[in-house]
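Page header: ASSEMBLY MODEL / three components / 1468 residues total.
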Amino acid sequence: MNAAKFSLAPVDLAETSISELPGAAVAASERESSALAALVCDTAGQELRLLYLFRKRQAAGWHALSVLLRPEQRRVPSIVGPLHAADWREREIEDLFGIVFEGHPRLGDFVLHDERWREQLAPMLPSASLSDSAPVPARAWQPRSVLRAAGAFTMPVGPVYSGVTESALFLLETLGEDVLRASPRTFYKYRALEKIVENSKPEDALLRVERCSGTSAVAHAWAFAQAVERIRGLVVDARAQTLRVFLAELERYRHHVAAIREICESTSTLVATSQASLLEEELLRLCCDLAGHRYLFGAVTIGGVSLEIGAADLRRALDRLREIDRRLIALEESLRYSSGFLDRIEEVGIISFEAALSHGLVGPLARASGVPDDLRSSQPYGPYGTLVFEVPTESEGDGYARLRVLFSETKQSLRLLEQLVDAPEGAAPPREEPAVAAIGWSETPRGACIAYARLHPDGTVARLHLTTPSFANWLGFYVAAEAFAFQDFPIILATLDLSVAESDR
Amino acid sequence: MSNWVLRGLRTGIKSTRYPRSLERAPGTTPGLPASTTLGSAADAEALASVCPTRALQSLEQEVRVDDGRCVNCRRCERRAGARADWRDDFEWAHAPTPDGPTLELPAAFAGSLHVLVVDAGDCGACLSELAQLSGPYYNMQRLGLFITPSPRHADVMVVVGPLTVNMRDGVRRCYEAMPEPRRVVAVGACAISGGVFAGSFAAGDGVAGAVPVDLVVPGCPPPPLALLHALLVVTGRAAGAAPR
Amino acid sequence: MTALFGDPRLGLGLALVACCIGIAACAVVTERQAPKAIAYAGTAGALGLLWAGLLGLGGAHFELQLWPTPLGTLHLALRPLGAFIECLSALVFVPASIYSNTYLSRYYSHYSLRWFGALYFALLASVALIPLAHDILSFFIVWEAMTIASTLLVAFEHRRQETVEAAFWMLGMGEAGTLAALAGWLWLAGAGSIDFDALAAAGVHAGPLACLGVFLLGFFGFAVKAGLVPVNPWLPRAHPVAPGNVSALLSAVILNLGIYGIVLTLDWLAPNLTTGMGILVLVIGAVTAIVGILYATIDDDIKRMLAFSSIENLGLVATALGASIIFELQGLPAIALLARVAAFYHLANHAVAKALLFLIGATIDARTGHRDMNRLGGLLRTMPWTGAAFLVGALSLASLPPFGGFVGEWLILQSLLRSGEISAIGVKIVVALVGATIALTAALAVTCFAKAFAMTFLGPSRSGEAAPAEAPRGERVAFAVLATATFLLGVLPTYVIPGVAASIAPRSSAAVADLLVPPFFQPTRADGTAALPPAFVADFHALGAQVGKGVVPGRGLVVMLRGGPRNPVIFAMSMTYFIAVLGTILALVAVLVRIRARRVRRAPAWDGALPRLLPELTYSASGFSNPVRVIFAGILHSSLEERRERIAEHFRSAILLTRHDTYFAERWFALPIVRLSLAVARALARMHHGRLNAYVGYSLATFVVVVTIGFISGALAPR
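Prediction written out in full:
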């Protein structure tokens, strides 16, 4: 690493050492009750840098701890005890970079499955040899079981199961009646997105970030674009910002309707599923009509948006959306009085407020458990600082609470869209100082996404790290899926709304 | 209870009339670039160089499209200079090579086809389009197409995603568990050529790396109508596009 | 010569001589040769017994007055009921003896096989003599011999603590039952002769109190040996610890003797039985059946599961006996006979099928070293014949056609369904409810045996051990004999029913046979009269009831209960035709499959694309039956004793659950009595405080009391 001090825009960075790390991490999390937002491992010349990024909950602002590891230092104390949100983040870095987090009880067989990859591959290190064509001696996969009882066994669900579902393996431990413990095994869909984008142009990297999770492409692309714009010191004009918000809120509306459809489908409420499916298809056609692609691919670019949409088009889209919203409200009313439906999703997959906080959950999942966390209001980006909207929360933390949050957020999205159509052109935001590395963030439909980017001097991507909301929220699965009847399993999965593609990257 | 029945009846029939008539509603397909003839070879080369996945090849003044690589980024359509022509149809499914084995299943499957969907690393967009097929607008069951969870009952395996290393064995085992006659349909640019993830150490260059592919459906993601067309091609009720 | 071969005494003599030779041989031969001696002599003796029993069923009988005693002359006689029991016992002893040849080798140098042989033959002799005993003294002499021999055989592995405990339970409860039964019979005899004929006459004249007393003592006394609730806690303890062939004998022979005792008591009291007694027998039978099958379903130890299944089946037999009493008292003699036939048919089925399953269980135990179904699995691959035999036994006990258990269960349920013809409302309701309970029992039996077969023989090996080799030929011969017997009992009911009828109602056996097996092959009797209405016969001949006439012997192949004019046929079925048609269809299908050969590709089982399918990812035996355990938790009272969780740094790293199952009859009936006895004993033990003066005082007090009683009785005696 060159002699210049490493800086991360717009983060308040503090250097610390390996031995002081646990104490410093706890102190950082207690500072204005911050949440661990991301754990990034980046190369710094011959050394490795660990960045523990924290987000203040009650005020705007980010701060981080940076630990430099010399080449021979590969053991770091784990902070998973005081900060449980670090669980999967440390496991991912261990698999991809080879750093051992001492004290973490569950390392290994995470991103790189035991039976497919050889040991100690550490593919994200620059020195990793990945073009090894020799056949890999397969290590046997051995599931870790928690339940010890005579006659206890594990029901495996997946990775190929049910109808149109993402590939993930669930191990349901049971005595034969109720499932006492469920463990997920993900990363069957690991595409090494962060490795592919290295040394490519940010515009090309943006394509991959969009397709990290196709159903929330705009939000992820916006987060990455923000990071790159911060690094380059670019200013996005107000018109482009307005369009970005419009498309992002439209995407959020469509995603929530799709999630509502999946919840109805999991409870076999067939007419409600069809009604929601109609709305979802109409929203997809609306997006395609407005921006040329049903999932809004290619709309957000570095520095702005790639297409011009006139005010008349926006107004027409908004009219169609209002009509769709009327039908969505009618659907909500009907579901509220369907006792069979409510029986199935109430008191299912409960996540308590304390669990949501300590596990670092984000998005509608956390808001349904009472954690009022929304990046649009706590860390405003783009024009969100000037727009008026609420952050709906519920307190029960069960499936029905999460459904209610989804419905409420669609109303807030419509409210935002209405403010955008007639908004006067605002003043351009001030130009920022260029930096070497920066973070960008956005509130995707599933929760907070944070993109860490560092560019080479020639402008290509040196390192990209995406902390996606589904990756953070998988920890909620362990809490929600405990001691439940097997028939409730699809409902728990549907109400948690976790995207495996988003989490696996 | 009765509330739902009335609501359903009041909504009426929303299904598309495809394949009896070509669906033309706006927003049903994002389209793909079409082969374009430009003014000069330099223009053609400039246009072809814009594509991030090398889906455009310039040949003299003509720009040809390898639709299996197109990821719908729209750079060729929204650029300042010469633009690519755009096709807004959706009947894109075709055999991967011109002289492959028989594509269609025997006639017995024409009215009843069971489809197994395997996710080999898809971003979620292709799966979402597949999920729309069961909805009222596309209603695949009226055409005798059904989704089944087990390969033992499946006639067609639809694979989405660029075939990650962690799923390669799984896809292979799904294929082997299917009884014959069986067909494999690769849906989406990722499944055909790896899409934007081609070249990754953890993902492959398409599904053909593990199982023989009988039909490809280009697009990123291909719209539900393209998927319906593809399944009809497999049952012999529709004609596939010409293979590239 | 024919007279000689037609005399059952020859067969019986052969059996007893074989036992004596066997005992003598076991005293003389070496340990290695003892199993062979047991096998040969045991088989010979059992075959002789079988032959004698069949002759007895055919009508031959004899009487033998042995030496006189102060209490009465010892009297042996072969009656049809006894002959039936002899047949059953012999039918089980033959394969058990063949099996012992190879099975006992596992006890070499651990325990004495010569003692085993001696006890084995003692058991065979006593079992042969019990149905012959015709007076109380000889009966209980042989009964005690059987009890002692069986207890010592059960306690064969005497160095293990649990074996000795189980043997004590068996002996203690067995002796208590024997005493109660003896007291009851002596009460019935009163001051008269102890001969069974005299007891039958006394039963006719017994008063209501005596009748009730004798009934309770006799029924509950023999219910101990028959394994009925609540006096059966010894049975699930005894079976797991006994050697394999002894378990088979215990369940298939000795339990039958308990029923034999109950039937004797009920037959003597028949003229004076009340509906209440019938309902008591019925309800106890039903409770036994449901409790037995529930505990069997949730148990993972093969032998204890089979023990509980025996309890269930004996409960079904008791239910049928109770039903027959009730129907008789309600004025429906035909249905009473039907119920009685059903009871004995089921007894026969259970004996044969249960013996088969116990022997196979013993083989599995010997081959794999344990009996835990949670750790077995996949045995069918290396033990196909054993597995096929187990399947036959399991299907029979699950009451599925075409095996014997189906016919027995069918007849029992059909008799209970006749409750509609009872006039007394209360009785009708009770019988109907019992019928529903028995139906539930049958359903649970299917679950239980599906679990037993699937978890033991199918699927992967759950413990990861290598699959054991196939059983040796001798054992497979034994399995084949029993499996064939089960099959024949299932497809030839029309031959078995007349035999059973002969044993239970010798005087009217023709009427019983007519009742259930209409003579479609011989519609006109020898004297020219029509056995059945000609129009009826013509209808059924049109349906095919004459198929097989002239080809197979017998009266016909249809089991049918005829009703009144409004409902001419209450039920009808023919297992023989069923199996013939089924066999033809299967053969046709096999031929067609061979002709239209298609390419078959073998692929591994579909497991959802798991990395590999491990045994712990498949259903375990406990898991399979856990829903039953949860639903019936109120009855079973199996307690989840401990749940410990280890949580480290938010990670739940272990959840430990231990479960302890107790048999409720043991907890609520036997143990309180034991505790009460111990408390009484402790109170009385205070007399033994060691002071010599007090002991002398006890003697003096006793002397004074006895002299006083003598004076008073002498003074009161009439001159």
